[in-house]
Amino acid sequence: MKTVNVYIVRHGETIFNTLDKLQGWADSPLTDKGIQLAIDTGNTLSNVHFNSAYASDMKRAIDTAKLILKPNKYLSHLNGELPEFREAFFGLFEGLDNMSSWKSIATPYGASTQAEMLEEVSPLVVRDRMKKADPTGLAENGEEFITRIHHGFNQIFDSSADNDNVLIVSHGTLIRALAIQYGDSSMDPVHEFPLNGGITKIIVGPNKLTVTEYNQTSI
C-alpha cells in the first residue's frame, strides 16, 4: 500500500507571535529570531531526502520554507504554495489579543482558554465555537477547516510516489489539530502548542493520516 512521509513544520516566529495576537489568514513578518529558527530547522532537516516541498500561501510560511530548503542536500526549491495548508481562519478575531479572545469564546462553555475546551471537545468543535462567537460569521467552522486540509493532503498523496518524503510548512493551530485527531496517547498537543520551527511527522495513506511524531526539534 502506497504511503507518503510528510514532515510538517510550523513557520518561524513572527511579529504577531511576539505580541500574542491571533494570526490566521492575517500575516506578519518573521522576526530575527524567527529567521534563525527556520535556519536551525533547515540544518536539522538538511540530510532528509525531500522529493517535494510545499508551504501554505501565507508569506510567513513561504519565507520559512525557503530558509529550511536552503541547506538541503537534495531539494532547493518549493514545488508549490497551497492555501489548503493555511492556518485556521479566525474571522473577527484576526489580529486580536490571544488570551482575551479565547476567554470570551470559552466562557459560555465553562472554560477560560482554548486548551480547557480541548480537554473536553475536539478541535473541530472548538472551530465551531469560534465561528458561533464571531458576529461577522467569517471564522471557519470545523467542517470547512478539516475539509480543506484533507483536500491538501489528497493533492500531495496523488502527486507523490510511494515512500516519498515531503516537506510542508504550515501553522500551529492546524498542526495541533492534526496531532489531536490523528496522533496517539504519547503526545499531548492539547497542552503543548507547536513550537515555531517544530517538526511533526505524518504518514499519509489512502484516505488515512497517522501522526507518528509531534513537535520535535531534532530527528
Automatic annotation (TrEMBL):
Gene Ontology CC terms, in alphabetical order: cytosol
One GO BP annotation of this record: negative regulation of glycolytic process
One term of GO molecular function: fructose-2,6-bisphosphate 2-phosphatase activity
Keyword entries, A-Z: Hydrolase
Site feature Transition state stabilizer, where: 171
Pfam families listed in its UniProt record: His_Phos_1 (PF00300)
Entries under SMART domains matching the protein: PGAM
Binding sites annotated in the UniProt record for substrate: 10-17, 60
Active site: 11 (tele-phosphohistidine intermediate), 87 (proton donor/acceptor)
Protein name: Histidine phosphatase family protein
Species of origin: Paucilactobacillus nenjiangensis
Biological classification of the source: Bacteria, Bacillati, Bacillota, Bacilli, Lactobacillales
